[in-house]
Here is the input.
Amino acid sequence: MNERARPEAVSTSLENSAFFMPFSMNRAFKKAPRLLARAEGMYYYTPEGRKILDGTAGLWCVNAGHCRKKIVEAVQKGVATLDFAPPFQMGHPLAFEFADRLVPLLPKGMTRVFFTNSGSESVDTALKLALAYHRVRGEGHRMRLIGREKGYHGVNFGGTAVGGIVGNRKIFGALVAGVDHMRHTHDPTKNAFSRGQPQHGAELAEDLERICQLHDPSTIAAVIVEPVACSAGVYVPPQGYLQKLREICDRHGILLIFDEVINAWGRLGKPFAADYFGVMPDLITTAKGITNGTVPMGAVLMKENLYQTFMTGPENTIEMPHGYTYSAHPVACAAGLGTLEVYQEEGLLTRVGELAKYWEDAAHSMRDCPNVVDIRNLGLIAAIELAPRAGAPGARGLEAHLKAFEKGVYMRVTGDVIAFAPPLIIKKEEIDQLFGTAREILKTLP
Ligand SMILES: Cc1ncc(COP(=O)(O)O)c(C=O)c1O
Here is the structure.
């Protein structure tokens, strides 16, 4: 029996565990694990019973807080009633009910829902829908997909290709052909410490026009952006930027996709970012908060005219040869319906409106801490950017993350950017605790 297979070795140490952790420093983590055993409301609990304030809503997904009774019960009942139903050429009532219950919450004009199991699947589904839409309407020459530097669109091939985070792309070869990227919108020389949307940079949307002129707009199928780019370090769109993107897309018949895997579900004080910014995309990708993070699920939301375009061929054909074994999984639909009830009963999809000013002030009060070079915020999202330590980029951020966990706060870092995005049920005292702990740490961090 090898070392790893011995039960006592497995139970005493994680160092040789078989689990290949995603997006993690496997060896360092397994030597000094940070485990979460249970959760309730705003808090995680470690196996030793230490209470950890959740500053990142798990991974930007637990918007209603943890282990909410109504959602837990919906999942329990769901799995006991219908564990699985094939989604191809068959159906189950909850899938139709959930899609129809979502529609009144969607930005005006979005009327159809294609279910997936994650944000990454939503993105690749939306890109395929865009290509297929143009092909069905006789513009199959529109094959290019445009993303943006610093964009994060998940980890499948399409999403990695349109994504703009170098570290996530460089070891995976050529990815997908026909992809180009617009410039990112981050300009700390003009916009550092902006409160909310930065003033400068709407003109950066013109970079899309440059790409159109380079390739000819008739070759471009879709542009995908996160309205607020979150995973790469929280980049809030400059005032007027998204409006300009929409105008350029309209001028050239290009579909605009908003990736709202994080931005949706009340994070900005509206159900969707499209409503917050008053800019209507053609497709929206989402996931995470759709089930409050309880059961994996995602969705692509689309305008009626797109859906109808697919519905024009003979009725005995499959209109979209795409889908997953677990698309519209009955337990995920049950979780989603339970989640919607909690969101609606507690007004969580708009609650951030009341909290946003307090949150913004708390975040920007960190400006006098050592090494802080920028603070960015919108809705219930904030980022504190630290100067990188000479010769060791990311080290300061990682240390902040580790120290925060010791002090009972979970906060996520990307390089030297600390990101905050707690559950939307957070109280003002907990906002104080979150930034108070960050302050204590930054004061002592070399
Ligand atoms: C904007 C955006 N798109 C896509 C994804 C990928 O989602 P998932 O990890 O569920 O595949 C994420 C995840 O953080 C995201 O933030």
